[in-house]
Structures are given as structure tokens and as C-alpha cells.
Amino acid sequence: MPTEPHGHKAAQSAWAPPAQPKALNADVRAFNVLVGARHTSDEIVLTILALLRAGPGAAGPAKAGMIGLCLNGTVLDARPLRLERYGSGNLRPLLVTARVPYRLLAGAPIHTRIELVYSDGERGFVKAVRYAPFGGDSRVGSVGGKVRARKTIGETTYYIRQSSRNKAYLTQRRRLDSDEPGNNRKLTAAYWLTRLVRWPRYVLLYEKESARYEESASMVFERLVDAGVTNARFILSERSAQYEKVPQRYRSYVLKKGTWAHYLAFFRSKVFVGTEMVAHAVDLRVANLRAASKVREKGVRFVFLQHGVMYFVALSAKARAAARKGTAVMPEDTVTIVSSECEARHFIRHGGYSRQDIWITGLPKFDRARRAPDADRIAVMPTWRPWEYNLVRNDCRKTGYYAMAEAIIEAVPPELRDRVVLMPHPLFSREMRQSPLSRYLPEGLSYDEVLEKTDLLVTDYSSIAADAFYRGAKVVFWWKDLPECMRQYGGTLMMDKRTVFGDVAKRPDLLRHFVRKRYGMPQDPVHVARFNRVVEFRDGHNTERVLECLAQAGIAAPALRAAHAQEGRHEA
Question: What are the phi and psi torsion angles at 520 (to 5°)?
Fold first, then answer.
């Protein structure tokens, strides 16, 4: 099989992929497939089999070009190629090998698509690389899920994964418990055991990364147990700071994350009720084929409770594709609870949901939302930036996220700065604790506990704003970086002058002015009216409405109906 000469062990080429390669994209046929991936001590070595054929439109002067693999805009191991060699007859083979240094991935996104690129300085093409020759693994349908070349170095795990459209992606993320060889084997063994041995089918409930017990899922869980639903189980990490806070009467219904009981229940269950995607019921971005397959399994019913009001950034945004109906991440049988008709229209218009996929009940967690009479904190809670996930992990002080948090805190009036509490997004919290801003991070407090003490919240467009305002706090929105952030999200902000329930600052002096103006004062009636368009229910019965919907949907129906009947007799 011919290979193009390159004459050196290249690391990174000096040229960028063609910016507008469409002229040759249509004129060059390429069947690219990943045939090899392995790790060395300091790099990942990828081997691609490319079958090329240039059509008539690619004809032109015999000008030498360069071909190589592209990851995140960087071309690796580029080598000379004369395209006319591939200009006639059948697809002709070309073997391309590239080395990807780990250091090059330090600031890369979580998932980076692997592409074959060519340029002669004027024209070029970009072709995605297939993970497998003929589509997805038959065991998981057409949605992929396979991984290869997994390696954990320190706190980072690297692997090549198959996307839902059979494209090859290089993934790097924080190490998970399921990455450990023993746990990975346990997951696979649990899968086979549930195929051989009958195991109870549970209604599984969970919150973010199965590590929290403070949001809507815990509220629904406790009400299910109280109603006599014996097959409700809540997944929670024993390392969670909230594990010991689970009331004693519910402890026997909690499954410790990573145990045999957890994994067996995960594979047997057909109903998941959670504040995050189903993957959080085992491990977010799990690299085990059987677990990844289960997340997308046909017949799984998912009640998406939302961990916050999802009205802020449009679901049509590229970065929010996972929350849209019909994606590989969301099961086909998914219903979502929302807080208003306004939010329901958002899910229908931008998320691909139909009316029957939506339950307008309000978030259960708001039923126990409290604010202390002496609340005096100024909470700073920006949402995460997916494009900075790995940058934060390497040096959070070099990120826009850190600069934003620092700018907000510095804009708080000096006389109020001792009231500031910084609560970064959970995915960024560990790294921020190693930074100079760590003095503003509280020790051992949950988001719920911080919000109880919050008089004023400063955020960008985090859903935490709705949580704080619901409790009676005021909100100031910091939108200095909004245009750039929306560009990175690949979408738009939903909030407008009819629904933005706080002051908007784009300069530090305005932020300081609004903090002084709103701190210690009642909520503005104009802001209250705008908030009520997005969050309709303020009666404390959101959880009850969710349970009624569960019963109507046939989930734990007998016990729930019996419990409702009993309540009716007591009221009579």
C-alpha cells in the first residue's frame, strides 16, 4: 500500500486547514477510516486508511499539496501529496499516520473530531474520518458508542470514541470511577448478569453525576417512598458531601454509586427520573460500551426533571444539542417538566419536542426553596463554558471564566466585598479552589445552603438565577462577554426585555451601581412580573403535580393512586 513520503517525524505542520474547501470537497471522493490508535508515553498515534479518487473538477496544474490529520484546527504530520495521482479509476489507498502529543490537547475541547485535510495553498478539502468501516456497532444500533485506545494519565482519561454518525472523535476528560479497570470489568459483568439472572426493575432517580442530593430528583424520590413505591431507588456517591444528609427513613432506598447493586439496577431499569441526562445515572461520558449502549437503549423511559430552568440559552444552540429530542443522548421516550407555558414553547420550538412530551408542573426543588430572614450574601455564580473545560483543568487563571469571576468580584463595592461568596460551576469548582479566588469559595456548603443566605446574585446566564429569584433574592446579569459566549455556544440567548428579571450590566461601573442599588432592597415589581412569565408556579405544589403526571403515565401508578386516594379520605 503506497504512502506519501514525509521524511521526518513530524509533530505539527506550519499550515492551517483550508478555510473554504468546498470546491474540492465535492470533487474528491474519500473513504477514510481509523485503522489504528495507540498510546505512547507522551502522545497518541493515529493511523488512517484513506481511499481517494479525484474527480474532473479537481483537475488543474500539477501543483503539490499537503495532506495530514486535523484536530481542533491544528494539522498534524502533514506530508506532500500530488492529487493528480488519484485522479482516475477506482478509489486508491493512502495510509496516513499522525502523532498527537498530549501537550497539544491541554486546551482542546472535550471531544475533538478527527479529520483528513488537504491543501495546495489555493484549494483543499476536509473529510471526516470514520470510526468503523460500515457504521455503528450492531449491538447498539446506529448510534455508535464504542471506544478504543483508552488511557488514564493522572486525572485525565484519553480515548477515541465513535459518534452517533460513526465519526471518530478524540475525547479527553476528567478521570471517572468507571475508568478504573476493576470498575469497568464490573460494569460489563453486571450487564451480562442482568441478561442471565432476573433482577428487580427499579425506578432509578439521580442528580448531577450521581453526587448530589438537593434538587428535584431527591424531592420526587422522597415523595415516591412516602407514597409506598417500593421499587424507587436513588443513586448517590458515598463520597458526596450530602450523603450523610439523606434522612434515615430513606437510606435503605439509596444505592451507593459504583457498587454491584448500582450497576445491576442500572442495567435492569427501564425508567429513569433525573435532573440530568441518563448518563449521569452511571457516569457522564462513560467509556464502557455496555453502559453507553444502555443510555441509548430502546424502551427506556426518561423523565427529565431539569436541574434548573432551561430557558436562558436556546436549545437550538450547538452546545445544547444533547438536550434536544431525537438525539442519541436523549431516549426516544423522554418527557420534560417545565415551569411555564413560555418554557414549554421554547422546548417545542427549539428542542424538537411535541406537546405530549412536556409536563408543565414547575420544578419540584422549588417546593423546599427557602431564604433565611438574615440573608446577606452576594453570591457570584457564573455558568460553565464547555469550550474552556480542559483549559480550566490545566490552568484556570488563563481562562475567560476566571477573568469573568475576578472582574465581577472586583466590581462589587469595597464595603460589600466581605459578603461575596463565589460558587463556580461544579465542573470548574475543583480547579478554582487552587486559585487566588479560593478565599471566596465556602467550605462544605451546597448550592442550596448558599442560596438560603443570598440577598443578591450576580451571574451571566446561569439557570441558578431562577433559583435565587424564586427565593426572594435580586439578580444582576453580567453580559460583558455575551456576544463571544453565544458565538461559542453556537446559539442565542432566549431572555429579552419581556423576560429578563434583573438588571443587566456590561461594564464594571454599571455592575457596581446595580449591586449598590439592589443590595438589601425588595425585589423590583417589574422584575417579578417578568419572572412570572418564565416561572408560573409559586404555590409549593410542584412535586405533587409531577407525581400526578407520573401516575397518569403509568409509572409507579398503583402505589401513587392508592396514596392519592388515602390523602383524599384524610381531607374528607
Answer: 80, 5
- Euclidean distance between CA atoms 396 and 6, whole angstroms: 38
Alpha helices in 273-417 (DSSP H): 289-295, 341-351, 389-395, 400-411
- Mean pLDDT value across residues 82-93: 79
Looking at residue 238, its pLDDT comes to 94
* Mean pLDDT on 335-356: 93
Instruction: Please give the residue that has the higher pLDDT: either 24 or 480.
Output: 480
Res 503 pLDDT > 50: yes
Q: Name which residue leads in pLDDT, 357 or 6.
A: 357
What is the C-alpha to C-alpha distance for residues 549 and 534, in angstroms, rounded to an integer? 21
Please tell me the CATH code under which domain 177-367 is placed: 3.40.50.11820
Mean pLDDT of the chain: 86
Of 75, 11, 6, 5, the residue nearest 44 (C-alpha): 11
Alpha-carbon span 308 to 465, nearest angstrom: 9
Q: What's domain 369-534's architecture?
A: 3-Layer(aba) Sandwich (3.40)
Tell me the C-alpha distance between 24 and 125, whole Å: 5
Q: Which of 273, 330, 341 is nearest to 549 (CA)?
A: 273
What is the four-CA torsion angle of 235, 240, 243, 244, rounded to 10 degrees?
A: 170
Question: Residues 545, 364: contact at Cβ < 8 Å?
Answer: no
